[in-house]
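Lab channel / #folding
Pinned by the channel admin:
"Please post every new chain as: sequence first, then the structure tokens as a reply. Keep commentary short and put observations after the output so the thread stays searchable."

First post following the new format, from NK:
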Amino acid sequence: MFEEKASAKVNLCLQIVGQKSNGFHLLDSIVGFTEFGDHLSFKKSDKLELTVQGAFSDQIPVDRSNLILKAAELVRTLNNIKTGAHITLTKNLPPSAGLGGGSSDAAATIRGLSRMWGTDLPEIHDLMKIGSDLPVCINQKTQHMKGFGEVLNVVNTFPNLPILLVNPLKKVSTQTVFRKLENKKNSPLSKYEKLFQTKKDWINWLLLQRNDLMEPAVSVEPVISEVLQFISNQISVEKVSMSGSGATCFGVFENKHDCDLAMKKVQRERPEWWSVSTEIIST
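Reply from TO:
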């Protein structure tokens, strides 16, 4: 059996800097991946099959619309593989949450099946056929993502950061949020120093950055503003924002103890929300 972790993808900042005539938006984002995520296992089989278990299994389709099966078919087609695989997904991340769960699962599928079948990983242009988040999710390290998601650079000096993820369990349509974004050409990320070494260096820089989708997401699902305010009220929280197009919001902390305490407060006072205390893992 082969196994892969599909980490949550967090847009620590997400700035929309343009839109092409084909409707695609140009992004400028620092993307981190957390210790917490989904889990996939792979066994050799004659057929290509998907089984889903875990907290959110009842919300995941197992037909060919699932990105996992699309990713598996991509690896098979590119490498002329005639056999199949039985894939088991343990779904720990809420779907449609702004955490790139489906893309991270698909990327983990590509990594796992490529190991099992002894093939190379697909090129970026092939990954983009499944989704624009696939390239960044293949390499689960903190990256600076630009373009449509295909221009990637690993940020080697980014530290491991404790992070609290909170989702009110409201699904938010990415397409709807982008439609409500009034200004499609915003300023890019401010320059960051390659010499940044400490958590404080990076946190201070992150405090100056934005998520341009936050305002339109709040207009679609107003509870997001309540989640952001709740996180902002926690002791020792540093950066508070929303990931992707929502509805997951996050708080960055300097130490894991305070992050854990904040999660316990969310679970105690807002038990209907999903929350987890984890870390952005860069090293």
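NK: The beta strands are 2-19, 25-45, 48-53, 84-90, 143-147, 151-154, 161-167, 237-242, 249-253, 274-280.
TO: also worth noting, Residues 200 and 254 are 8 Å apart (CA to CA).
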